[in-house]
Amino acid sequence: MSSGNDVAENMASAEFLIRKAAAGGAQMVMTPEMTTLIERGRAALLAKIYFEENDPSLPVFQALAEELDIWLVIGSMAVKVTGNSQDKIANRCYVISPEGHIAARYDKIHMFDVDLPGGESYRESQAYSAGERAVLAKTPWGPVGLTICYDVRFPDLYRKLAQAGATMLTVPAAFTEVTGQAHWHILLRSRAIENGAFIFAPAQTGSHVSARGDSRKTYGHSLIVDPWGNIIDDGGCDVGVTLAQIDQSLVEKARSRIPSLRHDRPFKLGDT
Q: Which end of the chain is more exposed for a tag (fewer CB within 10 A), N or C?
């Protein structure tokens, strides 16, 4: 996707692409981080989002999953949550069953607070409330470990999810163009190899203009990676749908060849 600051336009784009994926035979469809809105500035963001129980987007996605008889993973949406003194925002992933029920929620744990070359600066923690819980979603194909974007730089999260049973790991993202060019493919392949798990990484792409007129660029390249680290498909830089058939036997094959998930050992950090 290439979401912008107009929720209605983003919803129309998301519905079109979800329907296209389902028409192509997809039984599980995943969208990127910030599917319904990419906006800069806390005030502008808060003016366009809701508490979960009042969000008009969720019922649309739930009805769509039920109509199309698919599992639908909304990579994330911004939703209001109650803070200590004022409302803050959760960057929240939703897993929706073919019955239209919310089967799992995950709030992004790691906040993207960085200064990039070229003057780009991000301070997610100023607006967002960090999640505190790793989440496994139960599906007919096995447990799915949920993560979002910047989480990919924290391999321990993925290891814990894999050791808890996850055979598939999701990384919906709005990766910046700069960091994407440098690290996107390498990080995702690494998380797949380390854990002997499939990686599904639907991504935002292109330029995203905020209400105040500034813009940011995302890298695109939605990826599906197998448990041995092979890229099954790369969505490139264009908006569209990436489809793949998944052979779950590859998980056991990879984990039996390199059984590192069973080989963790305690250690102490010494001096020299």
A: C
Please say if the pLDDT value at position 83 is more than 80. no
Per the annotation, the verdict on 33 as an active-site residue is yes
Q: What is the 3-state secondary structure (H, E, C) of 92-108?
A: EEEEECCCCCEEEEEEC
> What percent of the chain shows pLDDT beyond 90?
82
Specify whether 88 is catalytic: no
The one catalytic residue among 33, 39, 124, 177: 33
Residue 157 counted as domain residue:
yes
The residue annotated as part of the active site, out of 39, 93, 108, 124, is 108
Average pLDDT over residues 212-219: 83
Distance CA 46, CA 50 (A): 8
Give me the chain's average pLDDT, please: 93
Residue 99 bears catalytic tag:
no
What are the DSSP E strand ranges found in 37-99? 71-81, 88-96
| CB-based contact 57:11 (threshold 8 Å) | yes
Domain count, the chain: 1
Q: Within 13 Å and on the Cβ side, how many CA atoms surround 54?
A: 7
Secondary structure (3-state) at 271:
coil
